[in-house]
Amino acid sequence: MNVHEAITNHTRKQNAHLERFLELENEREAAIEEAIALCSAGESFSVDTINAATDRINRHARNGISPTRVHVTPDMVREAADKKMK
């Protein structure tokens, strides 16, 4: 394999890694928005789905160049809901 092919393969791998990160990030963001909407409506909510997505993101990040994410607490969701209502 020549240098050009090696660079192309490396770039493709990085791009695929980042594309998967974006998919996982979108799942996490959707779960966050759902929890905020439930909280804003005064309904019960859970952060389990959010943190499961966070765990998948963090496992994925160990194998590439994508960032990690912190786990979300119920207080964080309540704070975000309060900010959204103001």
Automatic annotation (TrEMBL):
Q: Which InterPro entries is this protein grouped with?
A: DUF2533
Protein name (record): DUF2533 domain-containing protein
User: What species does this protein belong to?
Assistant: Paenibacillus tianmuensis
Q: Which lineage do the record's taxonomy fields give for this organism? A: Bacteria, Bacillati, Bacillota, Bacilli, Bacillales
